[in-house]
Amino acid sequence: MVTMQDVAKAAGVSTMTVSNVLNHYPHVRDETRDRVLRAIDDLGYRVNVAARNLRAGRTNTIGFAVPEVDRPYFGQLASRIIARASAAGYRVVIEQTGADRENELSAIVSSRNRMYDALILSAVGLGTADRELLRVDFPMVILGETVFEGPVDHIALPNVEGTFAATRHLIARGSRRIAIVEGNDSLPPNVSSLRHGGYIRALRESGVEFDPALSIGIPELTLAGGRSAAERLVDSGTAFDGIVCITDTVALGVMRGLADRGVRVPEDVRVIGFDAIEEGEYSIPRLSTVDPDHDEVAALAVDLVLRRIAGDTEWQPREFVSSFRVVARESTA
Amino acid sequence: MVTMQDVAKAAGVSTMTVSNVLNHYPHVRDETRDRVLRAIDDLGYRVNVAARNLRAGRTNTIGFAVPEVDRPYFGQLASRIIARASAAGYRVVIEQTGADRENELSAIVSSRNRMYDALILSAVGLGTADRELLRVDFPMVILGETVFEGPVDHIALPNVEGTFAATRHLIARGSRRIAIVEGNDSLPPNVSSLRHGGYIRALRESGVEFDPALSIGIPELTLAGGRSAAERLVDSGTAFDGIVCITDTVALGVMRGLADRGVRVPEDVRVIGFDAIEEGEYSIPRLSTVDPDHDEVAALAVDLVLRRIAGDTEWQPREFVSSFRVVARESTA
DNA sequence: TTCGGACTCTTTATCGATACAGTCAGGTGT
DNA sequence: ACACCTGACTGTATCGATAAAGAGTCCGAA
What we know:
The structure is a homodimer. By secondary structure, chain A is α/β, with parallel strands linked by helices. The first copy, chain A, is built from eleven helices and twelve strands.
């Protein structure tokens, strides 16, 4: 492999001068700089990032841990985060956790190993009980899901308020028997329990009765999960005319399941999701949803960790909540 | 920061013994191992990956360069690749190239910088002309798109054959005026030109006339692109009863555009896509498609680079073509 | 008794880049 | 004429881990 030494020898300078040229140190004579650059070119030299990382104590890499990249919500978030980070000269490593607590912790460990300068963690499996494990000595931002009040920055989605608004939207459109399709896995507080809370509050404030038979839990927030929830709901015989879905992906699955059972959306049942993934704009019918402003979330997450990397030590851990708006489309027309 | 030296001192051994414990070197006395482990625990020591990478000359990281992670096709491919690579102890860094030639080249440069032990590149912007730039000294696999015959391993999708089969499928179901929605950006050979070839051949072999007015080019293979293509097609007034779409994502957009114009699928027009993304199983109507066996592609890609990393120097660059099958669903019923 | 070998641990050199201190020539100010 | 500074470099130690080689110890077989 071609090293800096080789370049230095070829250019007749010290390795330090090569390093200075590469790092745009100003006090290098033009003639020397040219000679070094020519040698670099001739030999096809490339810096060895591992060596630079070791010496500099930084990796210029941000970790982003998500349950699954192939879920549109996370894919679209990842895309935004990558775009913003790479504009600032940072690479992004995506770790897939499968929403598993152990894997989420192992992403944190990776960062402790100095693999990443910072970690953005979309935590699902971690609970309030793990709060102490989050007391880390590198910049970290927790995204979205569970509430923490922990020792790190946390960007929350408007879970309660968003679902509250979504449920109110269905009520305003005329639905009275409103079901909710949500996750059933971990201990509260989590996304499902929070959004459930918003749903219940909206029903109560509108004087609509809550029927436990209309609450459907699914193990995974996927298309398949949504479809089977819809089938169970229809097959149960319980009457319903609206469904609040915990995510858009689930909602798309729900609409498919309703279609399979001959239930029309929105004529028989109104459906609303949460997340505003792009697919919802193109589904048939188009999906109404809660749009939590992902651009804001991604930008804030990246900016927060970059500021901490830059050495903003004054920073106190804070809790942010993204703004949102209800997007009314065909599925609740 | 706690280093190996600190642990060694605390445990009263040399750093090499600490290293041996960490790397499961068998010939360490139990008592010594325990002492070291206790010291590691007490001090909260973590290996420094940068140092290990430098010394070992490996990073245990594979780069995966894709146009966009948020396109379902790439997200689902990435997920499979990550899963398989991490089973072998490798991390995956995703680089987003935006299908841009410069960015694809810069992914190659990153690997030259020894950031990745290998690179899996979903090349779209690179063309046959860039063949020489692919002559690299690290394991690399090119995925999917353009044909190369270059100096690296290449896993191609069954572009011609798959589209041929898709078109024949439409013909078998009764379509005769078959449109194609494809990309219009770069120079052939590329995905679009190859798939176009399969389409033309199927028409010819079936004695169906090709009408250039039924060939719609779009700048980006997105949902929005598909929708606008469908609108243009309907608005042009040309009669058609089938559409071959270059990807499933485009097909979903096309179906939305047709619905907006009051055209029914499959009653008025049959639609088939390519890729077998999960969303197509849940769309309304369900999308028929060409399924190129992504599991096979992902597994092959990872296994190829791992074998090369492991030092299989005998390896000759090869061209693979994934197997495929036509999945008939509601959109061509 | 002696020798080879398996264990258990240590010493030393090294991966490639960079921080830091230092050298040296040539100018500036007084 | 002397101290002092600046620009343009160089030499060396160092980041933290590991490969390779070596040095004792202990045991069983010849």
